[in-house]
Design a protein that fits this description.
It is built from nine helices and seven strands. The protein is of the alpha+beta class. The chain has a domain of about 160 residues. The radius of gyration is 18 Å and the shape is globular.
Length: about 240
Protein backbone atom coordinates (compact mmCIF):
# COMPACT_ATOMS: atom_id res chain seq x y z
CA UNK A 1 0.00 0.00 0.00
CA UNK A 2 1.41 3.38 -0.98
CA UNK A 3 1.17 5.91 1.84
CA UNK A 4 0.40 9.58 1.20
CA UNK A 5 3.93 10.46 2.32
CA UNK A 6 5.48 7.95 -0.08
CA UNK A 7 3.23 9.17 -2.86
CA UNK A 8 4.42 12.75 -2.37
CA UNK A 9 8.07 11.66 -2.24
CA UNK A 10 7.74 9.69 -5.47
CA UNK A 11 6.01 12.57 -7.15
CA UNK A 12 8.81 14.98 -6.25
CA UNK A 13 11.21 12.80 -8.20
CA UNK A 14 9.52 13.75 -11.43
CA UNK A 15 7.85 17.01 -10.34
CA UNK A 16 4.88 15.85 -12.32
CA UNK A 17 1.79 15.50 -10.18
CA UNK A 18 -0.87 17.68 -8.63
CA UNK A 19 -2.14 17.62 -5.08
CA UNK A 20 -5.03 19.66 -6.41
CA UNK A 21 -5.72 19.72 -10.14
CA UNK A 22 -6.87 23.05 -11.57
CA UNK A 23 -10.03 22.76 -13.67
CA UNK A 24 -9.23 22.38 -17.38
CA UNK A 25 -9.55 25.17 -19.91
CA UNK A 26 -8.61 25.09 -23.57
CA UNK A 27 -5.40 26.93 -24.36
CA UNK A 28 -5.36 29.56 -27.07
CA UNK A 29 -1.64 30.31 -26.88
CA UNK A 30 1.59 29.20 -25.26
CA UNK A 31 3.14 32.66 -25.31
CA UNK A 32 5.45 33.12 -22.33
CA UNK A 33 4.74 36.02 -20.00
CA UNK A 34 7.45 38.55 -19.21
CA UNK A 35 8.23 40.55 -16.09
CA UNK A 36 8.54 44.31 -16.31
CA UNK A 37 8.31 47.14 -13.83
CA UNK A 38 5.28 48.78 -15.41
CA UNK A 39 1.58 48.04 -15.02
CA UNK A 40 0.26 46.77 -18.35
CA UNK A 41 -3.50 46.95 -18.90
CA UNK A 42 -3.19 45.45 -22.39
CA UNK A 43 -3.93 41.83 -21.54
CA UNK A 44 -2.47 38.57 -22.72
CA UNK A 45 -5.36 36.29 -23.69
CA UNK A 46 -4.70 32.64 -22.86
CA UNK A 47 -6.43 29.96 -20.82
CA UNK A 48 -6.02 29.94 -17.06
CA UNK A 49 -4.11 26.66 -17.25
CA UNK A 50 -1.64 28.04 -19.80
CA UNK A 51 -1.35 31.33 -17.92
CA UNK A 52 -0.48 29.54 -14.69
CA UNK A 53 2.16 27.49 -16.52
CA UNK A 54 3.63 30.75 -17.81
CA UNK A 55 3.75 32.20 -14.29
CA UNK A 56 5.51 29.12 -12.91
CA UNK A 57 8.06 29.54 -15.70
CA UNK A 58 8.54 33.17 -14.60
CA UNK A 59 9.17 31.95 -11.06
CA UNK A 60 11.73 29.43 -12.35
CA UNK A 61 13.68 31.88 -14.48
CA UNK A 62 13.07 35.35 -13.02
CA UNK A 63 15.09 37.30 -10.48
CA UNK A 64 12.28 39.56 -9.25
CA UNK A 65 8.90 39.26 -7.62
CA UNK A 66 5.93 40.13 -9.80
CA UNK A 67 2.13 40.28 -9.74
CA UNK A 68 -0.48 39.29 -12.31
CA UNK A 69 -4.26 39.29 -12.42
CA UNK A 70 -6.41 36.74 -14.25
CA UNK A 71 -9.98 37.64 -15.22
CA UNK A 72 -12.34 34.86 -16.28
CA UNK A 73 -15.87 35.12 -17.68
CA UNK A 74 -18.35 32.22 -17.38
CA UNK A 75 -18.66 30.30 -20.63
CA UNK A 76 -15.54 31.85 -22.19
CA UNK A 77 -12.65 29.41 -22.66
CA UNK A 78 -9.81 31.95 -22.49
CA UNK A 79 -8.91 34.39 -19.75
CA UNK A 80 -7.47 37.91 -19.65
CA UNK A 81 -4.08 38.23 -17.96
CA UNK A 82 -2.77 41.59 -16.74
CA UNK A 83 0.74 42.32 -15.49
CA UNK A 84 -0.06 44.53 -12.48
CA UNK A 85 3.19 44.51 -10.48
CA UNK A 86 5.00 47.77 -9.83
CA UNK A 87 8.07 48.79 -7.80
CA UNK A 88 9.28 45.21 -8.16
CA UNK A 89 12.42 43.95 -6.43
CA UNK A 90 13.91 40.64 -5.36
CA UNK A 91 11.84 40.70 -2.19
CA UNK A 92 8.66 42.67 -2.88
CA UNK A 93 6.09 43.88 -5.40
CA UNK A 94 3.18 46.29 -5.15
CA UNK A 95 -0.32 46.22 -6.63
CA UNK A 96 -2.27 49.48 -6.57
CA UNK A 97 -5.96 49.92 -5.81
CA UNK A 98 -6.31 52.09 -8.91
CA UNK A 99 -5.03 49.25 -11.08
CA UNK A 100 -7.66 46.84 -9.74
CA UNK A 101 -10.33 49.50 -10.17
CA UNK A 102 -9.38 49.99 -13.84
CA UNK A 103 -9.44 46.24 -14.48
CA UNK A 104 -12.89 46.05 -12.90
CA UNK A 105 -14.09 48.77 -15.28
CA UNK A 106 -12.80 46.86 -18.32
CA UNK A 107 -14.99 43.81 -17.67
CA UNK A 108 -18.73 43.38 -17.46
CA UNK A 109 -20.24 41.34 -14.65
CA UNK A 110 -20.27 38.44 -14.04
CA UNK A 111 -16.54 37.72 -13.96
CA UNK A 112 -14.06 36.25 -11.51
CA UNK A 113 -10.66 37.69 -10.65
CA UNK A 114 -7.57 35.98 -9.25
CA UNK A 115 -4.41 37.74 -8.11
CA UNK A 116 -1.05 35.98 -8.51
CA UNK A 117 2.09 36.83 -6.52
CA UNK A 118 5.31 35.47 -8.03
CA UNK A 119 8.05 34.20 -5.69
CA UNK A 120 11.11 33.71 -7.92
CA UNK A 121 13.27 30.61 -7.55
CA UNK A 122 16.26 32.47 -6.16
CA UNK A 123 14.14 33.82 -3.33
CA UNK A 124 12.93 30.33 -2.43
CA UNK A 125 16.51 29.07 -2.52
CA UNK A 126 17.60 31.87 -0.19
CA UNK A 127 14.92 30.92 2.34
CA UNK A 128 16.26 27.39 2.42
CA UNK A 129 19.85 28.59 2.75
CA UNK A 130 18.80 30.71 5.72
CA UNK A 131 17.67 27.51 7.43
CA UNK A 132 20.99 25.67 6.96
CA UNK A 133 21.80 25.65 10.67
CA UNK A 134 18.67 23.61 11.27
CA UNK A 135 18.44 21.82 7.94
CA UNK A 136 21.93 21.08 6.56
CA UNK A 137 20.46 19.01 3.71
CA UNK A 138 17.06 20.42 2.74
CA UNK A 139 14.76 17.99 0.95
CA UNK A 140 12.54 18.96 -1.95
CA UNK A 141 9.54 18.94 0.39
CA UNK A 142 11.33 21.47 2.58
CA UNK A 143 12.01 23.65 -0.44
CA UNK A 144 8.27 23.76 -1.08
CA UNK A 145 7.36 24.34 2.57
CA UNK A 146 9.54 27.42 2.88
CA UNK A 147 8.22 28.69 -0.46
CA UNK A 148 4.59 28.63 0.70
CA UNK A 149 2.66 31.90 1.12
CA UNK A 150 4.37 34.10 3.71
CA UNK A 151 2.64 36.09 6.43
CA UNK A 152 2.69 39.09 4.07
CA UNK A 153 0.65 37.14 1.53
CA UNK A 154 -1.97 36.38 4.18
CA UNK A 155 -2.01 39.99 5.31
CA UNK A 156 -2.46 41.11 1.70
CA UNK A 157 -5.36 38.68 1.33
CA UNK A 158 -6.96 40.06 4.49
CA UNK A 159 -6.58 43.67 3.34
CA UNK A 160 -7.89 42.88 -0.15
CA UNK A 161 -10.98 41.23 1.32
CA UNK A 162 -11.61 44.21 3.58
CA UNK A 163 -11.19 46.67 0.72
CA UNK A 164 -13.52 44.64 -1.50
CA UNK A 165 -16.12 44.45 1.27
CA UNK A 166 -16.10 48.22 1.76
CA UNK A 167 -15.61 49.46 -1.80
CA UNK A 168 -17.41 46.95 -3.99
CA UNK A 169 -14.33 46.66 -6.20
CA UNK A 170 -13.60 42.99 -6.92
CA UNK A 171 -10.14 41.97 -5.69
CA UNK A 172 -10.76 38.24 -5.96
CA UNK A 173 -8.65 35.50 -4.46
CA UNK A 174 -4.89 35.29 -4.06
CA UNK A 175 -2.46 32.66 -5.30
CA UNK A 176 1.30 32.47 -4.72
CA UNK A 177 3.48 31.07 -7.50
CA UNK A 178 6.82 29.36 -6.89
CA UNK A 179 9.07 27.45 -9.26
CA UNK A 180 7.45 24.15 -8.18
CA UNK A 181 3.79 25.07 -8.26
CA UNK A 182 0.97 27.27 -7.04
CA UNK A 183 -0.52 27.82 -3.59
CA UNK A 184 -3.99 29.23 -3.06
CA UNK A 185 -4.18 31.09 0.26
CA UNK A 186 -7.12 32.51 2.15
CA UNK A 187 -8.07 33.30 5.76
CA UNK A 188 -10.75 31.64 7.86
CA UNK A 189 -13.61 33.80 9.09
CA UNK A 190 -12.52 33.22 12.69
CA UNK A 191 -9.00 34.48 12.01
CA UNK A 192 -10.39 37.33 9.92
CA UNK A 193 -12.41 38.51 12.92
CA UNK A 194 -9.35 38.34 15.17
CA UNK A 195 -7.38 40.50 12.75
CA UNK A 196 -10.19 43.04 12.54
CA UNK A 197 -10.13 43.47 16.31
CA UNK A 198 -6.41 43.93 16.92
CA UNK A 199 -4.19 46.92 16.30
CA UNK A 200 -3.30 47.11 12.57
CA UNK A 201 0.39 47.23 13.52
CA UNK A 202 0.02 43.90 15.30
CA UNK A 203 -1.58 42.03 12.41
CA UNK A 204 1.59 41.05 10.56
CA UNK A 205 3.47 39.88 13.72
CA UNK A 206 0.40 37.86 14.70
CA UNK A 207 0.29 36.20 11.29
CA UNK A 208 4.06 35.69 11.40
CA UNK A 209 3.73 33.72 14.64
CA UNK A 210 1.09 31.43 13.12
CA UNK A 211 3.15 31.01 9.94
CA UNK A 212 6.32 30.05 11.81
CA UNK A 213 4.43 27.50 13.92
CA UNK A 214 2.89 25.86 10.85
CA UNK A 215 6.09 25.82 8.79
CA UNK A 216 8.23 24.55 11.67
CA UNK A 217 5.94 21.58 12.23
CA UNK A 218 5.97 20.70 8.55
CA UNK A 219 9.74 21.10 8.30
CA UNK A 220 10.40 18.85 11.30
CA UNK A 221 8.19 16.17 9.79
CA UNK A 222 9.61 16.79 6.29
CA UNK A 223 6.03 16.69 5.08
CA UNK A 224 4.20 19.14 2.85
CA UNK A 225 0.84 17.57 3.71
CA UNK A 226 1.48 18.06 7.44
CA UNK A 227 2.51 21.68 6.82
CA UNK A 228 -0.71 22.29 4.88
CA UNK A 229 -2.75 20.74 7.71
CA UNK A 230 -0.96 22.97 10.24
CA UNK A 231 -1.66 26.09 8.18
CA UNK A 232 -5.35 25.25 7.96
CA UNK A 233 -5.61 24.46 11.69
CA UNK A 234 -4.48 28.03 12.39
CA UNK A 235 -6.95 29.65 10.03
CA UNK A 236 -4.31 30.16 7.32
CA UNK A 237 -6.29 28.43 4.60
CA UNK A 238 -4.01 26.76 2.07
CA UNK A 239 -4.22 24.54 -1.00
CA UNK A 240 -1.26 23.53 -3.17
CA UNK A 241 -0.73 21.94 -6.55
CA UNK A 242 2.44 21.21 -8.47
CA UNK A 243 2.98 22.37 -12.04
Amino acid sequence: MVTRRKFIQNAFASLAFAVLSPPPLASASSRIFQTNNNVDLNPEIVSRVQGEKNLVELARTGDFEDAWVCVETPGVKDAYWYNVGKNISRDSVQVGKDTLREINKKHKSPFSLTRYHIHPKKKSDKKVLDLKNVLPHPSKEQYVIVGLPAEGDYLAEFMAHEYERKSGIIWGKNKVVSYLGIAKNDISEELRNILRNIDPEERKPYLRKLWVEACSTGLKADSLSIAIDEFNKRGLKLEYYFM
